[in-house]
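# step 3/5: fold
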Amino acid sequence: MNPGVQPAQALIGFGQVRHTRLRPAHNAFNYPTYFLMLPMRSLHQHGSGALAHNRRGALSFFDKDHGDGGDNAVAWLDALLLREGVEDASGEVWLHTYPRVLGYTFKPVSFWYCHRADGNLRAIVVEVNNTFGERHCYLIDPPQGIDYGQELKADKVFHVSPFCTLEGGYRFRFMRTSHDGIDKTVARVDYDDADGPLLETSVSGTLEPISAASLRKALWGYPAMTLGVMARIHWQAVKLWRKRVPFVRKPKPSEPFVTR
């Protein structure tokens, strides 16, 4: 950090999750949500401000909820990147993820935006958890770097939904914009199987600094948000079962832990 340069500030986003299944039965939903957007290097070097970091709080963030379960997720991420040959992502790392609320969290997907020292986006790690307690990371790292808004692809290797096979792959698109002082982000993940587009999903929101006021807004507006994530996953599964969407038996966990 250069003298006189202020560390990046932790942010919270308020927005929506959208999900549409196209076939064999149409099923769509959207619901309000909030999420954290954390500058992880700054967080570890300069503190977390109003956010409870690695300590209990009504709304908190713990490094051990990510990666290998250690107390420093940045160290885990740096080791992962170096192991995979990404040696020029020494800039800020922004993590888009759900917090713990009243001590509980479930994180279906988190996005690690890894920047070069010059601020350009170098790689993205898509960290996925399923309801069986398993975790997998997709590393997106074209050598030339990544532009926001660019379509990125990865083969699907990790079992998430019992109503989808492991065929096909994902199409990702990430956007972060700032206009008239309003900072917004969108993460879109679409899934295509052998027959074409099957799922269209996104999470989007308007970002604002984490403060005592914004944390109260999140807690009072969505008091059981992370419990609601898990509840909605199971409710949507019931709806798909009732629509007679074929059930897929869970395969063995994918190897290795990281795919590109």
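# step 4/5: annotate
The chain has four helices and 14 strands.
# step 5/5: archive (pending)
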